[in-house]
From TrEMBL:
The gene is glf. Keywords: FAD, Flavoprotein, Isomerase. Residues 144-346 form the UDP-galactopyranose mutase C-terminal domain. It comes from Acrocarpospora macrocephala. Pfam families: GLF (PF03275), NAD_binding_8 (PF13450). SUPFAM superfamilies: FAD-linked reductases, C-terminal domain, Nucleotide-binding domain. Its cofactor is FAD. Belongs to the UDP-galactopyranose/dTDP-fucopyranose mutase family. This is UDP-galactopyranose mutase. InterPro entries: UDP-GALP_mutase (IPR004379), UDP-GalPyranose_mutase_C (IPR015899). One of its GO terms (molecular function) is UDP-galactopyranose mutase activity. GO terms for cellular component: cytosol.
């Protein structure tokens, strides 16, 4: 049995059915498969929207790339992000174009490095996130691009956030403005849902939607791969693990193009949202209507009970609780814990797939082959 039909659960189910010929029951709490990578078509425009936030596939892992290409082809979309700070637009992450535009003059990589190093030298021993960020990029860039955005992400003044939240800030001294550096990048040609449905499309795989693993009662004596929240599995006995969540405000607009790009960040604190996604720009190759577009404004906040957990926070309390949950998980007979919720780790899609393939290859397959020999 697999609990959760996200990319981790689907990869395990697909491998067990196709490679080992096992019957697999996948139970999924939501009314659709695909976990957070799920997308759907907005009915009045035909535009594919990502319900849980923009998902761009990228990997340098040959094995993962080969695996996913069995289920879908990918477009050649390359992700780029811009940010509005004040009344100007700059490329993100901060690169030489951002630095030259912000300081209003042409600089060589060496000149830009020297300028930022001098500005970053202002703080020697950072005691909070603000000081840490200044020690990495200097005060002017911090104030323009990081302070407001971070305050909105955490609903907290960066001076009150621990320095450890950031170890580095992406910064490039070239004009390369591509968001990901991976060898393989793109979006599934037929959309995410078609890709994910193809993974589950096997006579030995049964998917039960709207079914919470916790409410199943005794799962029987079948081995389980659990990809739901780790603390939830144990009834939060050691306390809740902290997450940030996002709220998306979707809107169909009567105009062909709202912002000219797929993701626009808003650096200023007085703008309440952090980003605006415009979904038509993920698929310029598609024949979308010229007079309507779909956008989603993204807001960030701490997750309360009942909210979708999106990004693990990882405070010292969280880390202590996680260590205890991991011990409990190790002692659980015939249950393997995986995926972003089951391990309390941020995983990109390619990482979720790679780790599911590793669990299958190292733990599940050897066990069933051994059983078959006995
Ligand atoms: P995922 O959360 O997708 O799936 C778990 C499933 O388990 C869910 O469907 C859930 O409903 C179900 N479940 C939970 N508890 C259950 C229970 N008790 N019983 C039954 N079912 C249960 N990655 C990337 O590569 N590029 C990108 O651009 C992005 N963008 C992005 C944006 C945002 C806002 C987020 C939060 C994440 C991304 N990601 C991403 C990461 C991507 O979403 C992530 O890699 C995958 O969701 C991981 O798949 P999992 O199967 O681990 O979890």
């Amino acid at each position: 049995m697999v609990a959760g039909a996200g990319l981790f659960g689907l990869t395990v189910a697909e491998r067990c059915a196709r490679d080992l010929g096992l019957r697999v029951l996948v139970v999924e709490r939501r009314d659709h498969i695909g976990g957070n990578a799920y997308s759907e078509v907005e009915p009045s425009t035909g535009i594919e929207v990502h319900r849980y936030g923009a998902h761009l596939f990228h990997t340098s892992n040959e094995r993962v790339w080969e695996y996913v290409n069995q289920f879908t082809a990918f477009t050649d979309y390359r992700h780029r992000v811009f940010t509005i700070a004040g009344d100007r637009v700059y490329p993100m992450p901060i690169n030489l174009a951002t630095i030259c535009a912000y300081f209003g003059r042409a600089m060589s990589p060496g000149e830009a490095r020297a300028l930022i190093a001098a500005q970053a030298g202002e703080v020697a021993h950072p005691a909070n996130l603000e000081e840490k960020a200044i020690s990495l990029v200097g005060r002017p860039l911090y104030e323009a691009f990081i302070r407001g955005y971070t305050a909105k992400q955490w609903q907290t003044d960066p001076r009150e956030l621990p320095a450890e939240i950031i170890t580095r800030l992406p910064m490039r001294y070239t004009f390369d403005d591509s968001y990901f550096a991976d060898r393989y990048q793109g979006l599934p040609v037929g959309g995410y849902t078609a890709w994910l449905e193809r993974m589950a499309d096997h006579p030995l795989i049964e998917v039960r939607l709207g079914t919470d693993f916790a409410e199943l009662g005794a799962a029987g004596n079948v081995p389980v791969v659990y990809t739901g929240p780790l603390d939830g599995y144990f009834g939060r006995a050691e306390g809740a693990l902290g997450w940030r969540t996002l709220d998306f405000e979707f809107e169909v607009l009567a105009q062909g193009d709202f912002q000219g790009t797929s993701v626009m960040n808003y650096a200023d604190e007085h703008v309440p949202y952090t980003r605006v996604h415009e979904f038509r720009h993920f698929h310029p190759e598609r024949d979308y209507p010229g007079d309507r577009t779909v956008i989603a404004r993204e807001y960030s906040r701490f997750a309360g009970p009942g909210d979708e957990p999106y990004y693990p926070i990882g405070t010292p309390t969280d880390r202590a609780r996680l260590a205890r949950y991991r011990e409990l998980a190790r002692a659980e007979k015939d249950v393997l814990f995986g995926g972003r919720l089951g391990t309390y780790t941020y995983l990109d899609m390619h990482m979720a797939i790679a780790s599911a393939l590793a669990m299958y290859g190292n733990r599940i397959r050897p066990r069933f082959l051994r059983q078959a020999r006995v």
